Amino acid sequence: MRCSYIRLLVDDYEACFRFYRDVLKLPVLWGGEDTRYAEFDVGTATRLALNQREVIAEALGTDIVEADTTLPEQDRFSVIFEVEDVDAAAAGLVASGARQVSAPKDWTAWGIRAAHFRDPDGYLIEINRPIIPEDHAADRSQRT
């Protein structure tokens, strides 16, 4: 498992995008002012990502009040780990006692297979693996 992203879940996406791009001068790797998601180069293998807060809240169903009122209604921050096998890693985390928020599934619009968990303090943890579309996988196999 390797930490691939630190994702800030922001209320004012456009202002935050301009801050990281124009004030901190971080190179934009993906996204723009109007995409609600962007990735920045921070000089390491780990990337800084910005996401419109409501997008994640809606996707994970945390835009409604949870039964556990000790957790935020909407997350502000998440740590993303890339793993070789999302299903196996998720099963291992559950077996070790991690609180699962969402079971492994393909988030095709995001280009990943992912599962979500909470650490003991309630912070959102995502494990994921990029999805390779079948047509790209076929192209790769024909080249090898």
Q: Would you tell me which CATH topology applies?
A: 2,3-Dihydroxybiphenyl 1,2-Dioxygenase, domain 1
Main beta sheet: 8 strands, mixed
- Taking Cα atoms only, what radius of gyration do you get, to the nearest Å? 16 Å
- Annotation field: number of helices: 4
Supply the CATH architecture: Roll
| Residues in β-strands, percent | 35-45%
| N/C terminus separation | 27 Å
Q: Judging from the principal axes of the Cα atoms, what is the shape?
A: globular
Provide the low-confidence segments as ranges: 135-144
Oligomer: single chain
Helix/sheet category: alpha+beta
Say how many strands there are: 8
Largest sheet, spatial ordering of strands: 2-3-4-1-5-8-7-6
Question: What order do the SSEs take from the amino end to the carboxyl end, as H and E?
Answer: EHEEEHEHEEEH
Number of domains: 1
CATH class wording: Alpha Beta
CATH homologous superfamily title: 2,3-Dihydroxybiphenyl 1,2-Dioxygenase, domain 1
Kindly state the mean pLDDT as a whole number?
Answer: 83
InterPro entries: Glyas_Bleomycin-R_OHBP_Dase, Glyas_Fos-R_dOase_dom, MMCE/EMCE_epimerase, VOC_core
GO molecular function, one term: lyase activity
Protein name: Catechol 2,3-dioxygenase-like lactoylglutathione lyase family enzyme
Domain VOC: 2-130
Task: Describe this entry's structure for a reader.
- The longest helix has 11 residues, at 13-23.
- It is built from 4 helices and 8 strands.
- Helices cover 27% and strands 35% of the residues.
- The chain has helices at residues 13-23, 53-60, 86-95, 134-143; strands at 2-10, 28-30, 37-40, 47-52, 77-82, 99-107, 112-118, 124-130.
- An 8-stranded mixed beta sheet has the order 2-3-4-1-5-8-7-6.
- The protein has 144 residues and is of the alpha+beta class.
- It has a single domain (2-143), classed as Roll (2,3-Dihydroxybiphenyl 1,2-Dioxygenase, domain 1), CATH 3.10.180.10.
